[in-house]
Amino acid sequence: MIQQRTNMDWMLTELVDGVPQVRHVIVLSADGLRMAQHGTDLDTADRLAAACAGLQSLAAAVGHEFPGGDGRMRLVVIEVSGGFFYLMAAGSRAYLAVLADEGVDAGLVGQRMRDLVARIGDHLTTPARTDGPTA
């Protein structure tokens, strides 16, 4: 598991280095647990991961309102004073979150996030949590 996180860290660094004005990159599970981060401390990454779980749940609820939709969240973009927040589905039960400054190239962020997910999406899959140990 440690080796996987180390490998993931360099991939996240590549996203930050390749897009000027990206501040934080976080990989999280669907239930809001931080799996990896770059550009932020652990406490901030954990708070953002928990908030992302709520956001993806809200997006899924809205998604069910579309005819024929399955409610799965693919991408959420939020513009706030000072910057942008992106949350993208990145594998089964895994998400990629990016915080960027106001002047960021929004199209470039989306493209690089899609590229990263396409390259490592299978490695970002998290298993569903169970209630207890299995025999």
What does this structure look like?
- The chain is α+β, with helices and mostly antiparallel strands and about 140 residues long.
- The protein has a single domain, classed as Beta-Lactamase, CATH 3.30.450.
- The chain has helices at about 1-20, 40-65, 105-120, and strands spanning about 20-30, 35-40, 75-80, 85-90, 95-100.
- The protein has a five-stranded antiparallel beta sheet, sandwiched between helices.
- Helix 1 (about 1-20) packs antiparallel against helix 3 (about 105-120).
- The longest helix has 22 residues, at about 40-65.
- Residues about 1-5 have low confidence and may be disordered.
Distance between the termini: 22 Å
Gyration radius from CA atoms, angstroms? 15 Å
| SSE-based structural type | alpha+beta
One letter per element, helices H and strands E, the order comes to HEEHEEEH
The number of helical runs is 3
CATH top level is Alpha Beta
β content, as a range? 25-35%
Instruction: Sum up the overall morphology in one term.
Output: globular
Low-confidence stretches: 1-6
Strand order of the largest sheet: 2-1-5-4-3
Assembly category: single chain
Q: Indicate the CATH architecture.
A: 2-Layer Sandwich
How many DSSP-defined strands? 5
- Give the helix level as a range of percent: 40-55%
Largest sheet: 5 strands, antiparallel
Average pLDDT score: 84
Q: What fold name goes in the CATH topology slot?
A: Beta-Lactamase
List keywords for this structure.
135 residues, globular, disordered N terminus, 40% helix, five-stranded antiparallel β-sheet, Beta-Lactamase, alpha+beta
